[in-house]
Amino acid sequence: MSISRKIFPALLCLAVAVLSGCNEEIEVHTKSMDRSYLVVEGMLTDCADDVQRVLLTESVDYFEEEVPPVVSGAVVTVSDGVDSWLFSESPAGSGCYVGPQGLHGTPGVTYKLSVDAVVGGTAGHYEAVSKMEEPGFRVDAVDYMYAGNATMKLDSLWTIAVWGQDAPGPNYYYVSATLNDAVFPIEMSLAMDDKYFDGQRVICFPITTLYQTEEMRRQYGDCAKYLETGDVFKLNVYSVPKEYYDFYMGFVSSSVGSSVPMLQSQPANCPTNITGGDAVGFFVACPASSASVTIEDPFRPYYKKLFERFPR
């Protein structure tokens, strides 16, 4: 899971709800908070090579733009009803808790996250439960094409296309990526459903775009750098429950595959599966499918259609 400490303002959340065709009205409180909330970002995948992480921070007042303080020294465990795994804070003082090497989940199994932490000076116990979905999308290949302005170097835009197979029935996905192992944050990722390709073979589907600027690189690091020959781009598609899709849409605007964070704080009444006290965020167990591509010519002309590069 991409680790993020920046969330979008409430008005943008409302705009997303309208544009995505939601029938249920969502009200987001924007008044100043009189207490601290535990903010949880956790994902458990079915890939043994993935580093399973849980990020813990404290909320800040909605109109503050400061970086939220991390929650250090917590006791974080994940269990499946039979076994339990302790997550260690790494590096120390980071608020990022990492599972044992090789830990991974299994579709159909329910996992529980337990957190004992001090938030706002008060000790608390928090829990979240998530059942891992069956895989909904199989990624067979991924490719790119340049669609931006290479000469002025003010910004660059690449279209990312995917080949794969969608499972029948309604499915929901969280789509993220890595560039040379640098993980994309949640602001550079997106959530989507499969209503346009339910149960179908997907060929050269423009699943997202990369909008890279020097400002984004300064803010996010090398995951937001300009593509160069030899770079390795990896696309990850996670099959998530509808509840996680709703959580994501409650926080992040997904416009052409990228978003610009504006505020650090998180509306306290957006969807969450964290229980036990004042807490926001989400813990999700989900299967993942991925494919990678090595960049040959980062400015490969747009007219070289991607669907000609792979057989149908």
| Assembly status | single chain
**Global morphology:** globular
Give the strand tally: 16
Low-pLDDT windows of residues: 1-32, 253-268
Proportion of beta-strand residues: 35-45%
Second-tier CATH architecture of the largest domain: Sandwich
- List SSEs in N-to-C order: HEEEEEEEEEEEEEHEHEE
* CATH class membership of the largest domain: Mainly Beta
Please give the radius of gyration in angstroms. Answer: 19 Å
CATH topology of the largest domain: Immunoglobulin-like
Main sheet properties: 8 strands, mixed
Number of helices: 3
Which terms would index this structure?
single chain, 312 residues, mainly beta, Immunoglobulin-like, 8-stranded mixed sheet, 5-stranded antiparallel sheet, 16 strands, globular
Note down, in words, how this protein is organized.
The two termini are 31 Å apart. This protein has 3 helices and 16 strands. The chain is mainly beta. It is globular, with a radius of gyration of 19 Å. The protein has helices spanning 10-19, 214-220, 242-251, and strands at residues 38-45, 53-58, 75-79, 84-89, 96-98, 110-119, 122-131, 137-146, 156-166, 172-179, 182-183, 190-193, 201-212, 232-240, 279-286, 288-294. The chain has 2 domains: 10-134 and 263-286, Immunoglobulin-like (Sandwich); 137-239 and 291-306, Immunoglobulin-like, CATH 2.60.40. The strands form 3 sheets. The chain has an 8-stranded mixed beta sheet, with no helix packed on it. Strands 10, 11, 12, 14 and 16 form a 5-stranded antiparallel beta sheet that branches. Strands 8-9-13 form a 3-stranded antiparallel beta sheet.
